[in-house]
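Dear colleagues,

I hope this message finds you well. In preparation for our joint manuscript, I am sending the AB hydrolase-1 domain-containing protein (Exophiala dermatitidis) sequence together with its predicted structure, so that both groups work from identical material. I would be grateful if you could confirm receipt.
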Amino acid sequence: MRTGILSLSRALSCKPTLLEISGKCKLIGWPLSTSASTTTNSNNSLVVRRNLNIRHSLVPVRSICYSCDHNNPNSKQSTILKISPSHQKPLATPLRGPQPSPMQEAASASSEADRQQPEPQKDGPSLAFESLSPDATGPTILLIHGAFTTGRDWDLVTPYLTSTSSTSTSPSSNSYHILVPDLPGHGRSRTITPFSVSYSAHLLRQLIVNHAHNGIAHVVGHSLGAHVAIRLASQYPEVVSRLLVSGFEVFPTPTGPSSRLSGLLPYAVWTSQRLENCVPRFVVRWLMDGADIRNIDTSFCTLALCRQICEPMSDNEKWPEPWPSPTLVIAAGKAGVLLPTSDHPHDAKRLADIGMQLCPETKAVTHPKMRHPWNRQDPSLFADTVRAWVENRPLPDGFVDL
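The corresponding structure tokens are as follows:
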């Protein structure tokens, strides 16, 4: 199980079910009914008894142990789960009833060690960020940039989100509080290292808690920022309201002879960032349908950062666990003649399918006229799309469901 969010819909298949949670643990989206009851035992633990299969039930956890007689689904013996909250160490007390096998315990321990993240500390590192319109009456929107850029990548979009005037396609008059951070290793946060998706999510959670209105935010992520946004929603759902990601792509893990060349990828990325700056900006704008692409700041685009971003991951690590936030997954649909400027629609669809397991409202769309950096190509449309999604209104014209 991935740290942060636990889906019980797959873990439980027997009846009746007994869920025991020690300490204070927040249950999100628990569909309690007359067939479920809660009590407190002598150890001051919340006990939830439910005689129906549990669906869409989330608990922020560090570890879980459970046992069930899967070979006898009609068994009257209860399934028993003990869950330790994310702010405590995993429970070491033995379970009553059937015990998990040594293989299950070893797998659980390995997964816990690999994925455990520390709780944010007030005296720890903090991401550099800008806070725009902090006195706005609307909620907070967190904008997460992509690889080798900074929060300045959103400077064409933010005026449309902080202004109360409507654009040509958006009837909204809401003004939003905007948080625009620089990710670890990037821009003004270059001294916060190493970069990783999990560490970025950890620091962004701290940013939302400390600076967002009511400690919660709508989250928008582009390209690498889309991966960070999804991890944030998976690990810390209590700080994410609605989610919009664009340009989420997963590249296959090299196997066979090609795996020997994977070590050269950071060098290729490092070189390409510098070669891209040699291309005149008017040529880039022509190739990208007018997208205003900035020169890359090579002062923080180091070989170390390239290695951290290109660090190989297993296929299981590339795809997240389901998360509860309503999510719009967007794939830019316009391919380039000389440059690969479109996104992968099959990745967007698969990501949306994962999110739909816990939130049926999640969906994937594409726009055939938009290229990968469409926040720089058509910032007005991008802002209108964000407004429409966070306000639960129909999307602007041009989007097609995947």
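For the figure legend, we might mention the following. The first strand starts at residue 6 and ends at 7. Residues 6-115 form one domain.

With kind regards,
E.M.
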